[in-house]
Design goal:
Chain A is built from 5 helices and 5 strands, in the order ββαβββαααα. By secondary structure, chain A is an alpha+beta fold. Helix content of chain B is 24%, strand content 25%. The termini of chain B are far apart. Classes of the chains: A alpha+beta, B alpha+beta.
């Protein structure tokens, strides 16, 4: 018999109690168990970024995260970024810059962008950061590098970089 | 002939479904959460060819949560669509590795996956051929994948080649490539009282409905409100959809969902087949072409033919009195190839446009000037006048904008910070079609015009652009239009494919709008209603109609490592009227990045021992990521084409990719002096050249 383990998780501000199979990923817990499909599955292997969510404020790949290991965690999906009915600045910038086409990778892109902007503000360097000690400036090269974990087959990359740039400098 | 007046068309209306997409609330085919939904996990063949001799499902059936295990022994019988891909679980023959041979239905994904692993399939394996050898025995197909004839011949190309003062002969190869839309194919199927309801990731709900109705002899409803990219692979239904509906039939009333895993996207939903293209160009000393010959050998599947029409666009690109195109097919024991973004034009433009560049070098002539000198007055094979043809203007304006003349034409002249820099150009064309068979219905209700047509928005922006077309055709603002698409619950629509979606649906909407205004004027009453079928284009047989492009690339090749990067791409397009500049630019840029990805990254590698694509995931099969893409600009010329359709718009879904790989390869030659004739272009092409 399969063993299930009780846990709780808060998603977009709402607490959920559930019993999970220890093999269940956070992505499948969201989609299959909680019916929260605002997070998409593109590869299930951590290779495409479509399933990116903010987990306790940091961007993670929910397909590579076992749900059972995140008891008590706070998850924010692209749908939970809005506050008081106002779209998040990154979300608004994606709309304004047409930074998506089919839209399937988009929730993951937006969560990833929110995480990336925060990482830069906290001074975390990337592979293209010239001066590791200086403050990070999110120029187009930095943004492209930091957003390269999120594939977009429609290839909206030019507009994605513009959207992140606009949101980061607001 | 004039095109219709544009008020909304030509403006950058935002994507109508944008708010749903950026929050993730847009529901795709796999985003179904109905209670009691069963999860399907397939069992797949592990040999490329053979016969199933036995299947033991007992261990799988014992897994808790498993509801059923379906095999060919107990699967319902299917009607015949004539498509071998649809013969799912109908017999014991294995045609390719990865073929579905059984399916598990379970309450949860984990149980379904575990049980599928426990199904034991005994197979009598047969010898197979899965590696593409362009010198293997090949046959002449009755028709190419797009219906065109396999061979064309004008004049005497061989004699003309023997007599031509300057001749270029070279062979170019393009690999197997997989579409990999971000949304893997997904189907949710429910049988209710003998009727079938399907949510499908589809480029055409009506085509899906027709196919399923034939297979299952039932009333079928298909919904595809949002589609996470298609690029050709979601046009015709593949085996996974049929498998899901078959399985659902055994559990009436319960939804069954099958969302393909990424690996299965390399096994059962088609691909662009490999080609080798033998080019021969013969020219006079002034660069005028005497002969163009494009002889293609391509891979196909033994059990289902699809031949990439790689020589097709060569039939219309340049003038030459002697010309030949031919296509030969080598059958392999693989999944069947299919349409992939610019089928034919994408790989074919690599062969032709690299050969033209080599001819320019041989003639010591600017490659833009060479192309201008060979601009045809009429279609070189059928003699039809062009409805419009912007190739020369694209070349000239693109060159100006790109700064082409500031570069020394000789190769290997610019070394900056350890990188060899060069520039290249490649051109392309894509036909401007109109597909028959759509119906648009316009109803005035609640102060708005509801425009219903079974179009598909696969990311190209159909929902938005059809709203703009309807607004202009009805003479109202876009706020007065509500477009309903993406299902068989609205009137039929042709598929989103062949860069013909907007042209076909848009022409139909305009026809319905004209009828509506004829009947009711501009002050309709509640419930007023008109509909129309797609009108024939009276000019279709009178003019050659196509989009054209000139692609410019700057390439940098590292002098020590051979790493190749593309700092800059500029595409100039002659595509008629751009209906929405923002969405149009997005789509063209996306196509150009596909070209970059084709040039530098994409190659599906088949292990010929087993018939398996060994790099079958997004780590092994690299598609361009954000950091691979630097400056990508898409621009267009003003082009008024009154013959293609009332909107004056040519399709733009595919022209973006065409010519890019050649422009990059030509730029790489200009940068380094190394001519790479095989895609993708990688470091070792330069490192092994001895030239770096």
């Amino acid at each position: 018999m399969t063993t299930t383990i009780p846990m709780s998780i808060t998603v977009d501000g709402e607490r959920h109690d559930l019993d999970v199979d220890p093999r269940t990923t956070l992505l499948d817990a969201l989609r299959e168990r909680l019916g929260i499909t605002t997070t998409k599955k593109g590869c299930d292997h951590g290779q495409c970024g479509a399933c990116t969510v903010l987990l306790d404020g940091r961007r993670v790949l929910s397909c590579l995260t076992l749900a059972v290991a995140k008891d008590g965690a706070h998850v924010v999906t692209a749908d939970g970024l809005a506050t008081d009915g106002e779209l998040h600045p990154v979300t608004e910038a994606f709309l304004a810059n047409d930074a998506y086409q089919c839209g399937y990778c988009t929730p993951g892109q937006i969560c990833s962008a929110v995480g990336a902007i925060d990482e830069a503000r906290r001074g975390m360097p990337s592979a293209v950061t010239a001066d590791l000690a200086a403050d990070v400036t999110l120029d187009r090269s930095e943004i492209a590098e930091r957003m390269s974990g999120n594939l977009c087959r429609c290839a909206a990359y030019v507009n994605i970089v513009s959207a992140v740039e606009e949101a980061a400098h607001r | 002939m004039t095109t219709m007046d544009a008020r909304s068309m030509g403006t950058s209306v935002r994507r109508i479904e944008g708010p749903d997409k950026v929050t993730g609330t847009a529901a795709y085919a796999g985003d179904t959460v109905a209670a009691g939904t069963l999860v399907l996990h397939p069992v797949q063949a592990t040999v490329a060819r053979g016969e199933i001799t036995a299947i033991d499902t007992s261990a799988a059936e014992a897994v808790p949560g498993v509801v059923a295990v379906l095999t060919h022994r107990d699967a319902p019988r299917l009607g015949d669509t004539g498509d071998p891909e649809h013969r799912v679980l109908q017999g014991t023959t294995i045609h390719h590795r990865g073929q579905f041979v059984a399916a598990v239905l379970a309450e949860h994904a984990e149980a379904a996956a575990e049980a599928a692993r426990l199904v034991v399939v005994s197979v009598d394996e047969a010898p197979s051929t899965t590696g593409f050898d362009p010198d293997a025995e090949a046959y002449t197909p009755a028709a190419l994948g797009n219906g065109q004839q396999a061979d064309t011949l004008v004049g005497d190309p061989d004699a003309a080649l023997a007599a031509a003062p300057v001749v270029v002969r070279a062979s170019y190869s393009t690999p197997m490539e997989h579409h990999n839309p971000m949304e893997p194919h997904a189907t949710t199927a429910t049988w209710i009282d003998g009727r079938l309801e399907v949510r499908e990731a589809s480029q055409g709900a009506e085509l899906a409905r027709q196919t399923l109705a034939t297979l299952f002899d039932a009333e079928v409803t298909v919904r595809s409100p949002h589609v996470g990219g298609g690029f050709g692979t979601k046009g015709f239904l593949h085996a996974g959809t049929v498998l899901t509906v078959l399985a659902a039939r055994t559990v009436p009333g319960r939804p069954v969902r099958f969302a393909l895993g990424r690996r299965q996207m390399f096994e059962t939903v088609g691909y662009r087949p490999a080609t080798v293209q033998h080019m021969a160009l013969g020219a006079a000393a002034d660069g005028r072409l005497e002969v163009v010959a494009h002889d293609v050998v391509g891979a196909t599947a033994r059990y289902k033919e699809f031949v990439e029409p790689a020589g097709g666009s060569t039939r219309s690109m340049y003038a030459a009195p002697h010309r030949r195109t031919s296509h030969r097919a080598v059958p392999l024991d693989l999944d069947a190839p299919t349409y992939m973004r610019a089928p034919g034009e994408a790989p074919g433009s690599f062969g032709l446009e690299c050969a033209v560049d080599e001819l320019a070098v041989a003639l010591d002539l600017d490659p833009i000037e060479l192309r201008v000198r060979n601009e045809p007055d009429v279609h070189p094979e059928n003699g039809l006048p062009f409805s419009s043809r912007g190739l020369v203007e694209c070349l000239r304006t693109g060159a100006e904008r790109f700064g082409w003349s500031s570069w020394d034409r000789a190769p290997r002249r610019r070394l900056v910070d350890g990188w060899w820099h060069g520039v290249g150009v490649g051109c392309g064309t894509f036909p401007a079609f109109r597909m028959p068979g759509s119906t648009a219905e316009i109803t005035f209700t609640g102060g708005r015009y509801v425009v219903a047509i079974g179009a598909a928005d696969i990311g190209q922006g159909a929902r938005t652009v059809l709203t703009q077309i309807a607004a202009d055709a009805l003479g109202v603002d876009v706020d007065s239009i509500a477009v309903e698409i993406g299902s068989t619950q609205v009137p039929v629509g042709s598929i989103a494919g062949g860069s013909a979606g907007t042209a076909s649906w848009g022409s139909t909407v305009v026809e319905a709008a004209d009828r509506f205004r004829d009947k009711y004027g501009d002050a309709p009453d509640e419930g007023d209603h008109a509909d129309a079928a797609t009108p024939d284009n009276p000019w279709a047989e009178e003019y050659a109609m196509a989009a054209y492009c000139a692609q410019f690339a700057e390439v940098a090749v590292h002098a020590d490592t051979g790493e190749i990067r593309v700092p800059r791409l500029l595409g100039m397009f002659g595509v008629g009227r751009i209906l929405n500049p923002t969405l149009g630019r997005s789509q063209l840029q996306g196509g150009m990045v596909w070209g970059l990805s084709m040039a530098l990254h994409e190659e599906s590698v088949v292990d010929p021992r087993f018939g398996e694509v060994i790099n079958h995931d997004l780590a092994g099969y690299h598609v361009a990521a954000n950091a691979d893409v630097r400056v990508v600009e898409a621009e267009w010329i003003d082009e008024d084409d009154a013959y293609v359709n009332p909107m004056g718009a040519k399709g733009i879904g595919e022209i973006g990719i065409v010519g890019v790989a050649a422009a990059i390869a030509n730029a790489a030659y200009h940068a380094t002096g190394v001519r790479v004739r095989s895609l993708p272009i990688t470091c070792d092409d330069f490192l092994t050249s001895g030239l770096l």
